[in-house]
Batch of 3 targets.
Target 1
Amino acid sequence: MKLIKPTIVLAITLSSTILFLIVFPQNQISSSSGDSMSRARSFVLWLHGLGDSGPANEPIKTLFTSPAFANTNWSFPSAPSAPVTCNYGSVMPSWFDILEIPITADSPKDESSLLKAVQNVHATIDKEIAAGVNPNNVFICGFSQGGALTLASVLLYPKTLGGGAVFSGWVPFNSSIIEQITPEAKQTPILWSHGLVDRTVLFEAGQAGPPFLEKIGVGCEFKAYPGLGHSINNEELRYLESWIKARLQSSS
């Protein structure tokens, strides 16, 4: 059987993710003015996967129809373009370098480029908090490479945040980085979702996350999705909506 190059595999999985969201659109968030006034401001940052873009993921927010998100500021940034080792040095949107595909629980990590990306995420979080958003109402979410960056960004942020949601991600750093995790960061809850038939970031890579987090004292809810490959489905996103909603702090 002729092997498909990783670049092609990633293009297929990422485009299918967005197609699923576009084919099944939902109504925009709606709420009464009185209800929105009682809601505290919140912030959701979405980090896309390798080779993707922020704007291509914006349809995700249309699935969050609860009035609880009336005062939510969404951000869908795009990663800078850079050479990616696992794709033969091809230049593409990438938060940090990935050394091999498929990604397993034991894949090598490039912590140097990862930590640079974490600093940029932290700068975005700092800006929202400085603008008046309660850290407990800040949620970082990401798919694939963006999920790995989400995990690192949440764990290395010095304050307790509302939560971090990892979709089809992995632990992108070695155990030595544990020393940098503050007691406050360990209080940030993690939601981890992964497809059982993921062939790009193997299920074993995702499954290794919760034991790692439990060992360092971080709470994690892990959800496995049978039949799901390297993609996001609406079931995952509907659960994410309820998960974030349950953790939003009121304005009182």
Target 2
Amino acid sequence: PISVPSLAMEGRGSVMEDTAAPGQTEGVPESRGAQSMAGQAGALVERSPIPGGLALVSPYHTHRAGDPLDLVALAEQVQKADEFIRANATNKLTVIAEQIQHLQEQARKVLEDARRDADLHHAACNMVKKPGNIYYLYKRESGQQYFSIISPKEWGASCPHDFLGAYKLQHDLSWTPFEDIEKQDAKISIMDKLLSQSAALPSCTEPNFQGLTH
């Protein structure tokens, strides 16, 4: 015969086993779920039970993923950082593109000036051209272009040929149109002053923005 107390103990044991089983497994899915979400987000720091050689009181509470919204915020922060980096690179590339465009424009002008200077040097001339002098370009009925030291004003109404323009021969054998002579002479004067004072300039190893703020 089975006594009542023994049945009660068996029943109590089964109840304890039933209640203990969920308690033993409740924490496992929660931690594994958090680790799974952290793994999907990427960019999470690996767990260390002894960070810096110091044992943690509760590694679970220290390393757990916590609120899933934290992972969303982390992903948004990474995305925002990517957008800022892309915008910053775009701005720098835009500046470089503008500089390239400016250099291309300067190169085009250099080629045009070189072609003009070459054509002027091939114009007919019965004298030795000297740098610093102004010469006047005329065109005959035959199409020949030639240089003369006589200006249209000096010719007056008896100018025999079509006047094409006046040019000053620079010391680098380049030609400056008459309307640009004053501006070009001012630039050359400034460069001459800088070259004459270069020996007295102190050596400077750091950037100097003097004169840019005034």
Target 3
Amino acid sequence: MTRCGRRDVTCGVFPRVGRVVSGGVQHGGMVRRAVGGPGVRGARRPEVRLPVLERFEGGGLEPDGDYDGLEFREADLSGQDGGGARFMDCALRGCALDGTRLSRARVLDSSWAGVRGVGTDLAEATWRDVELTDARLGGTQLHGAVLERVLVRGGKIDFLNLRGARLKDVVFEGCVLVEPDFGGARLERVEFVDCAVKGVEFSGAVLKDVDLRGAASLEIAGGVDRLSGAVISTAQLLDLAPVLAGELGIRVEG
């Protein structure tokens, strides 16, 4: 079942330079910082206010489908093809997304909560004003995607592929990210708040106003040389020092 929209919006492998681990615990508690701060502009969070939704009763997703004001509750969308579809003012709650094809989809003013799946294909998708909460995802493909005013809160996402993506005003909060790949991506006003970031890859990425200070733990697998547009804490700097020295060709002895 599809509904016409009320409005529309125009829409590898990298060399490793070392593994750096940083903890974000000071004075016996987790670091919690205000949004932004001196020298860094804070991300603008989405404000998703959904209208009264109709229950989705369709048999499945359709390529280039138009979904407006619908609630997908506990739906098994595994293996379905919604490539190029538009989701406006929609909620996905507890849905299965194993192998679901949503490449080039547009997800606008929507909320995804408790979704789960492996190998979800969102390559070159557009996410604007979206909240993703308590997701359990693995191998999600978001390479070449555009994310603007997106909040990822809670849950765990393994092997998130954001290579070549563009992220602006994106917040990762209270979640676990295992080996996320931002290789060649552009990040502007992106925050990591009270989340564990394990084996992150920044090779070839461009960072601007990226705030890593609030990460509860931070492990950088590659691309430490791309952090010039990021802000880190003093503790994180100390952890990064050996790798930074190696990048600059500085010998540390004694």
